[in-house]
Amino acid sequence: FDEDYPGAVREIIEGADVNRFYVVPPFGRLRSQPDEVQDALDEKYARSGDLATVTLLSVLEALSEEGVAAVTLPAPFFHGQRARHERAKSLHLGHPELILEPRSHPFGDARPEILVRTIFYSGAPVDEETPVTKFFSVSEAGDRDREEVVRDFEQLLRQGGGETTYGFVRRDQLNPDDTWSYESYSPERQRELEEIKELGNVQPLGELFEVKAGRPLHQETREKVRESPDEGDISLLEARHIRSDGTLSYEDTRLAVNREEMGESDQVWLQPDDICIRQIGGWSAERIFAGRVEPQMTPLIASNNVLVLRPREKTTEEDTDLVLQYLRSES
Known about the structure:
Structural class: alpha+beta
Oligomer: single chain
Largest sheet: 6 strands, mixed
């Protein structure tokens, strides 16, 4: 890599004799790059986290007002909370005209964990009150008529509003705090939400629960626990103790710590009615393992592989029951 990677990207864009670009940036975390590359990324880019996002911002900085750049990016740019600052920056540099979202793994079985989307930016932010962004997504089904898909895409490009079979037009500025995905903005989802609202109030989960992530034990404490596993009086609830039937096998925990040693630690001390969820990794999980903390289970500490939903003061028992049943339901 050039030591001034952003500058090298801008130079390519500014020096080109065209104003239409398709960019497939390098994928990789900034912290894994050579020191000279990291040093060149001053505070302006340091929060971006990965080279793909740095590339996008560098392209937009150099793109002319008449230019258009299509950039294929990792999916976290479109939905990750850490990327919301970069999404906001991109809106100050250009306007997202179109987002193409594959419903499959583009790299197949070789790298199933990598999901990407391609976003088209025009070179100038829009000033109009109702800017237009188009979304298009087709599933991997083999029986799709390619000509039909192409016709549908061409129809979407001509439309200034409404829907097509595989796409829709959103007439509003994208919010950097939102998820920029087909599913999140689709009119079909909005219709489903309106139907749900007829049954009662719709509230974000964050208004009902405080979300806490369990923390690992400090190394010194963990070593003491391993040396004397039976001397502790506070059990450590780990993911494996959240059973498929929703019960918490808190009495089977292998690790326990002494209350005196914990002091004013930053551990997540579980409370009655907390909902504990296994932190799930990978793409194969078909269901969520979740259980509720009962009064007789405490004192209890959540391990770093346990996610905790703690009911807020206004949350009713019925709310907690409903969320727990939903989490336990099959996907």
